[in-house]
Design goal:
Layout lengths: L2 H7 L2 E4 L5 H7 L4 E3 L5 E3 L3 E5 L2 H6 L9 H4 L14 E4 L2 H15 L3 E2 L25 E4 L1 E2 L2 E2 L3 H14 L4 E2 L14 E4 L26 H14 L1
Antiparallel strand pairs: 1-4, 2-3, 4-5, 6-8, 7-11, 8-9, 10-11
Length: 229
């Protein structure tokens, strides 16, 4: 096994239902959210856990894309989600794969800015469902030394992306926020949820820890213990 493969296999996979109350409230695993057209989508449940900054920088998802590029956030992200350990949906691997192919066809490096990759459903810009919340979207403002401004440049690289696969969606050039883009490429794969091979789906959607999830369950357990005694 190569060093890169070894690093990739060391990423810890977590079921967000097993995280603490605050993280679950911020990541909202399994909740249904509506996109700008009113369609409902279920938020991801399985995440990679990034223990520290060093791991975020060193873990490579492909030859040219590291995990850190997809997880840089601004101050509009919830405070807890700006701290390590950090969490990113497992579908980020699929996005990195397609971006690697896009980089090859573009013939230059692809630069994802802060907040251009994963954004949690608690981010202040997460007003409606977008693939950014599934870690299956990237905003690209520069390719090589080319700053993506102007209709001709954006349409050129949009065309390269669309030629790669019918799975790739881009926003047309324009000035309507959320519907078009005039200073970057919006590159997304839709609302993909990845279930890692080490996950068993026969478990219920609740934390797998000894403490009950709801207060009434706690009371019922205390009542049973009292009766038994």
């Amino acid at each position: 096994m190569s060093e890169q493969q070894s690093i990739n296999h060391s990423i810890k996979v977590v079921d967000a239902f097993d995280l603490d109350d605050e993280l679950r409230s911020l990541l909202k695993p399994g909740e249904m959210v509506r996109d700008a057209e009113g369609r409902r989508h279920r938020l991801p449940r399985y995440f990679y856990e990034i223990p520290n900054h060093e791991a975020a920088v060193s873990i490579r998802l492909t030859n040219h894309f590291g995990l850190n590029e997809f997880t840089l956030v601004d101050l509009k992200e919830a405070a807890r989600l700006q701290q390590f350990p950090r969490y990113v949906p497992c579908a980020v691997r699929v996005l990195a794969f397609y971006l690697e192919q896009f980089r090859r066809e573009a013939g230059a490096s692809v630069h994802i800015p802060v907040n251009g990759g994963y954004r949690s459903p608690s981010h202040k810009r997460s007003l409606t469902a977008t693939p950014h919340m599934w870690a299956t979207a990237a905003d690209i403002y520069r390719i090589g030394t080319t700053i993506l401004k102007g209709k001709e440049t954006i349409e050129k690289y949009n065309g390269i992306a669309e030629e790669l696969s019918d799975d790739i969606h881009v926003l047309p050039y324009g000035h309507v926020t959320g519907a078009t883009a005039d200073d970057h490429i919006h590159f997304d794969l839709g609302y993909i949820t990845v279930i890692p091979t080490e996950i068993s789906e026969d478990r219920m959607e609740q934390p797998q820890e000894s403490r009950p999830r709801f207060a009434f369950e706690d009371r019922r357990r205390r009542d049973r213990r009292t009766v038994d005694e």
